[in-house]
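Q: What structure does this chain adopt?
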Amino acid sequence: MNSSTPEFNREVTGAGPQSSPAVGATPTGAGAERRKTKIRLIVNADDFGRSSSANRAIERAYREGILTSASLMVNERGAETAAEIAKRNPNLAVGLHVVLVCGRSALKPSEIIGVVDQRFEFETSAVRAGLKYFFNPEMRKHLQHEIDAQLREFRTLGLQLDHVNGHLNFHLHPTVFDIFRRHYYDWGITAMRLTRDPFMMNCRLAWGRYLYRSSHAFIFNRLCARAQPSLDRRGIRYTDAVFGMLQNDRITESYILRLLDNLWPGDFELYCHPDEEEHAHETAALCSPRVRDKIQERGIELITYSDLDAPIPPPIPESQRGDGSGGRRRRRTR
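A:
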């Protein structure tokens, strides 16, 4: 079998969308044992649909390389073409890349007043957007409506939702995540990126930009610690660690090779931004024969979010059990 075809992803590594278990499902004993003994890796492309260059690179990285999934920006001009690419490559898992900063909205400016300008564009500064969303209580309802509209647009394109994450990882912003946790079931969310990029490991794999890397690791470790209990309670799937954020568009062949050599048994995500222009080096890295050979050499299984086991929800404390009604209230509360 030629490893430069999509069959490399499906047959050698087992990747490909699976039927999603119900939200709240718990892993079987076999699944738990597998996580202890095997290295499993999701390789995801963000910004699917942002441009024709990104779309072409993502399809190439899937068909010729190690890419297993992509996160779609439904409001960008290349979204419909991206959906067509996904449909002709049915084993490419696709999730929603929610855009609330540095991008375009699904709703009209008059429907989400103060969130976007008259050109349907969000704030271009992540810091300014983050402060506005956190301190202005009026933003919450507008952001909820916008997220709902993006999810509806995703389904209008005829795609199955593999996962959800956010542009610039804004899905973990406290205001935004609180919206998500109240609507996991309503929106059919079964998997979400928990962006924990291990700083000390990253320091062994890459060099430079220490202020950026240390500050982002500090911030997102705390955001993830805040979000994880909610994901656990609701059985939302996530990986043990995520790689790519601290590299910030510097995913090279040498970085991936070092990363693959340092992975331990567990479930992980590597995300990147392949395109044919600005990030052509990332496309080349994903399609590198040396990278494919290293994956086979280490026995790494390429997967998607749909292949992950759901976390086991913590037990309900005795004080909340009563005659069983407390458990029912727990399930309805969002």
